[in-house]
Automatic annotation (TrEMBL):
Membership in a protein family: Belongs to the folylpolyglutamate synthase family.
Matching Gene3D superfamilies: Mur ligase, C-terminal domain (3.90.190.20), Mur-like, catalytic domain (3.40.1190.10)
Key words, A-Z: ATP-binding, Ligase, Magnesium, Metal-binding, Nucleotide-binding
InterPro entries found in the cross-reference section: Folylpolyglutamate_synth, Folylpolyglutamate_synth_CS, Mur-like_cat_sf, Mur_ligase_C_dom_sf, Mur_ligase_cen
Species this protein is from: Sinorhizobium psoraleae
Mur ligase central domain span: 51-273
NCBIfam families xrefs: folC
UniProt superkingdom: Bacteria
Name of the protein: Bifunctional folylpolyglutamate synthase/dihydrofolate synthase
Nucleotide-binding is among the record's keywords: yes
Matching PANTHER family: DIHYDROFOLATE SYNTHETASE-RELATED, FOLYLPOLYGLUTAMATE SYNTHASE-RELATED
Amino acid sequence: MTATQVSEAAQEIEKLLALHPKGFDLSLDRITRLLAALGNPQERLPPVIHVAGTNGKGSVTAFSRAILEAAGLSVHVHTSPHLVNWHERYRLGVKGGKGALVGDRVLADAVRRVAEANAGQHITVFEILTAVTFLLFAEHPADVAIIEVGLGGRFDATNVIARPAVSVIMPISLDHQSYLGDRVELIAAEKAGIMKRGCPVVIGHQEEDGVRDVLVATAERLGCPMSVYGQDFMAHEEFGRLVFQDERGLADLPLPRLPGRHQYANAAAAIRAVRAAGFDIPEAAVEKGLAGVEWPGRLQRLGGGKLSHHGPPGAEIWVDGGHNPGAGQVIAEAMASFEEREPRPLFLIIGMINTKDPVGYFKAFLDLAEQVFTVPIHGSDSGLDPVALAEDAGAVGFETTATSSVAEALGIIAELVEEDPVPPRILIGGSLYLVGDVLSENGTPPR
């Protein structure tokens, strides 16, 4: 399939987008009805690792998959949203090797069958696509399934799993306030909704004590065997290695392949989650998983491609889809660590959608980045106007320039640093939609 061709599955999903409302409608009634019409495939899944949180969901999912696959297990993975192609949401496990994104005809067939079972009744496309997840994962045997929550937890369409092998709650911060609440404690209560009575729970690193208290109280009320980061397990860097510790003792591991110090806690949560789910993974497989893990669009360095050629020669270009203040903080910390290792002037190219907090995001980079360039987002109808976004960055204290595209912004940066002997570091981010646009235009889509 060439870049100009539309896949069969994408055509089927576009039909659904024309019929059904966009966005989220938090309730379990519609998904429960639809799954019953399909014969309740969610009851025929392999052991499920169910992952929620504001930030870090994708990373812990990627680490868990890498570790399990390194041990020779077959792993299904559901994530959302996708970056470039709908197929990215569904990775089917392969015994003894790495899984692969679902094939186009298989996905198209599953979408058609789910749509037929829905029989035109009121539903969101996300709920249909979640039902597709359960159908695919039930029909293709695997050792384990990792399922990422779409939004929130309690009423998310994935939350029909009655007995997960483990529920994982990653860092929680303000995001989707109109759906989940305007305080982190309220958001934590929504995300704690994926916990099931008596089922193991892993609570990842939390910045807010109030968040941790809500999660711990919920797990205790439900009688869930519980592991809390910083209390029952932890990780830190020592002499260029990752030291993981839980009640079993210390493990001396390689640093994760995913860059940024925040990934130490994410890797630790994955190790603990895999163990809590009942998988006794040898340390050699954990080492292999951490060293080989991949997670496109999250602090991913562009190693070339059509788009990157617009930038300055020798520039270090990174893309990251983090889009809320909490994500901005960890990405800024990663950029600061890069600066410690190899000083370079930092420029930001940012696009965001109108449900986010641009000011909170930009504040994380104050005194770190030299200038902000804002761009439109072509993959969403909710993209912020670059001029308005530039005003938000300017309110924080940045010198800003609104541009019409990432290519234009890269070209301007190239002119600005033409006489600078040190090539710059450039971060393109603020939205997964923008990252998807960039990877597609660059010719380096996820596989």
